[in-house]
Amino acid sequence: MLGLIITLIVVGLIAGAVARLLVPGRQSMSILTTIVIGIVGSFVGGFLGYLLFGKDSFDGFLQPSGLIGSIIGAVIVLVVWMNVGSRRAI
């Protein structure tokens, strides 16, 4: 169980950091927020992958396709986060 939590945090950090690099503009957020966006993006990416391909992975927890899906999901979550945050600031 502890290994799963550590893996989620590391994958969340990687996915969130890559998403912040891919999305243009300034994102003023902490490391913790980056990790949370990456973790939520992992779930979003996994859900979208399940909807598109109709399969669930039984080959293991950590796969390259899962990392790519996590990054795509994190980009989606970050764009939504930035749009919601910019509306609140106005």
From TrEMBL:
It is found in: Cell membrane. InterPro entries: Transgly_assoc. Keywords: Cell membrane, Membrane, Transmembrane, Transmembrane helix. It is a multi-pass membrane protein. The keyword Chloroplast does not apply. The chain crosses the membrane at residues 6-23, 30-53, 65-84. It comes from the Bacteria. Signal peptide: none annotated. Belongs to the UPF0410 family. This is Membrane protein YeaQ/YmgE (Transglycosylase-associated protein family).
